[in-house]
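Chapter summary example: a protein plus adenosine monophosphate.
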Amino acid sequence: MSSSSYKAPRGTFDALPDQQPARRLVEDTANLLLERAGYARIETPIFEETSLFARGVGESTDIVSKQMFSFTDQGDRELTLRPEGTASVCRAYLEHGMQKWPQPVKLWYSGAFFRHERPQAGRYRQFHQIGAEAIGSDSPLVDAEMIVLLRDLIEALGIEDARLRLGSLGSIESRAAYLDELREYLRSHESDLSDEVKGRIDSNPLRAFDADHEGTAKVMAEAPTMLDRLDAEDSAHFEAVKGVLDDLGVSYDLDPGLVRGLDYYTRTVFEFTCESLGAQSGVGGGGRYDGLIEQLGGKPTPAVGWAAGIERLTLAMPEVPQGARTRVFVASDDSNRQRAMHLVTDLRRAGIPADLDLAGRAMKGQMKQADRLGAASCVILDAETDPVIRNMENGEQESVPFESVVEKLIAELA
Ligand code: AMP
């Protein structure tokens, strides 16, 4: 039990050793799949100028208005712990003149992000995301590539119940016109709506599509949708994205009410959800953000990206991989401790996970420790005799000259 009154800050957690294999698998798999598709890793600072997020993510979003960890540093700079990755990657794109690189510039990242949200299962104040961004192309092929890569990542991790929701938000202008139309529609049916939806008609009318309330659901079944209000170009773009996904056998549910918490999305938006995760069911999502680079001071530059939560992915994984196990344990009496260290070092250098007693246990206790660690073999260094190799599964023992122990174990464990 805890022997100190210090605790990790609310909404944060320690990722303990038993969680590391799953976390590492997520990152290694993402690395493999993304680099294979031409995405190169980028690391950006954990904090940025506050105005980057205010500008990039949008002042009206929950993230910027309520959830940022902001502070003033010793030089009176207004800084914020990054709540998401896209604004930083776009800042880096502009700062390093990546417009001159061959387009699109394809980047991926993995790291910690910070949002002051109400903590609950699967929702933290410091969490970790894998993300990918392709900047500099408006081709619907890139939207599809992104979606397929996230789906492949989810599948490679053994997650089978992920559902893809797909929508299009059109351009910023057509969306604004549509939202006005939707607000008007909701107002004309106000008496049938839940209080919660009523209270959000102005701030977030799209949320009405997500409501469980029966009366609201009935109203929303007849509501105008953004997908019916796309202009010809946006509509053709969306048809092309869907066409590629169909061709690749990627199934999706069209979701006219797909809401993402960031202002910068245009055209394609998507989200993967897993029912098994309960209330916080989103494992990853993203979309196109054709206006963001310009918003940050660059030339108009189309781009698309996604982010997926490492914690949510590991929670959704049906099987938790095992960490590296000690294969060989070297037990020794007091007069052989140094020889034991020598042997363990030789075994490790030969690539065999090996360990020894560092707690002064008696021989019997060391054998127990070997068992506890799940070692396949135990080497016993006792008195002046040759080492004995004990097979921990069947208990067979064999005496082997010291110089041959490593070679013998390599042959046995290979
Ligand atoms: P977003 O950047 O909001 O689009 O989120 C992308 C993904 O990051 C989500 O689908 C979640 O998997 C994960 N995520 C977002 N916020 C949190 C949080 N507070 N705690 C844990 N994971 C999160």
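Key point: The radius of gyration is 28 Å.
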